[in-house]
Amino acid sequence: MERIGFLSFGHWGPGQGSRTRTAGEALLQGIELAVAAEELGVDGAFFRVHHFARQQASPFPLLSAIAARTSRIEIGTGVIDMRYENALYMAEEAAAADLISGGRLQLGISRGSPEPARQGASAFGYAPDPGETDADMARRHTALFRKAVSGAGVAEADPRYAGGATGLLPVQPQSPGLAERIWWGAGSRKTAVWAAEQGMNLMSSTLLTEDTGVPFHELQAEQIRLFRDAWAAAGHRREPRISVSRSVLPIVDAEDSRYFAGSALRDSRDQVGIIDGLTARFGKSYVGEPDRLAEELAADSAVQAADTLLLTVPNQLGVEFNAKLLGTVARHIAPALGWGPSRS
């Protein structure tokens, strides 16, 4: 385990016990938690992107603000739903955020998951072409986005206003190296293989939209193995990055116990359900004393197969609580996985 980071879903609302009651608080607390995480030696600050919900939505202003307040920590998404994106505008925003950060952007994207709005992407102005599925449209947007961040020309120059230039113009700005820091959020073994063939890093979460009957971590470890095999077969020259997400909730005091002790038994096993008509397997939560969690995570075959572990945080409990949670993981759990804090 080379890196650990946090993954925030950016929930906000006036529910009982919420310390993140407004969208403004969710954004400002996201910045402060990233600053605190960097001070702890944590390696990454990642944010989930959802639309039509009381969660983080437009990530680039938030990531840019974090970039301006920090100097080392990676900043990223997990993940952006590409059905909703204008690929060229997103390429401009991503490059700007990456330049502000000095090349620390790690951008997770995917074909998307169920959203509160029916045909929400259509409200944004995007609908599949004839014969396309939503997944096809997301991959079409992804292809154009990756082409744009790679510096390829995407629009015909008008010599009258382009200094006499002809041919295709790239979007500006460009941020060198960003194209190699794009991750695909793969929900199955098949999509992981596709991501490897495309040359994108792999971002795998606590949900896979398939079930073979084996424990979640074993199915996810198989997904990672197939990704690595496909990457090697494709002949890519660089080494890929691979992340997995886990809900890790250490109990070290009465406050932790009040929030999580009741879920320790309920969430300590895999669950199987239906998403978009497909059988899906959900990974368990890790809840309990730090020493026991360290042992359980060390036995998690997918955690061992990845280079990056993203910890989903209960962001509505506020910055102080989540900084404490991350500190507990950094001091008492992650070292057992081979991780050490980064200070440079």
TrEMBL record:
Which Pfam families does the UniProt record give? Bac_luciferase (PF00296)
User: What are the GO cellular component annotations?
Assistant: cytosol
Name any one GO molecular function: oxidoreductase activity, acting on paired donors, with incorporation or reduction of molecular oxygen
Task: Give the signal peptide, or none.
Answer: none
Q: Which SUPFAM superfamilies match?
A: Bacterial luciferase-like
The record's InterPro entries line, in alphabetical order, gives: Bact_Lucif_Oxidored, Luciferase-like_dom, Luciferase-like_sf
Q: Which residues form the Luciferase-like domain?
A: 9-256
What is the name attached to this protein's record?
A: LLM class flavin-dependent oxidoreductase
- Record the organism: Arthrobacter nitrophenolicus
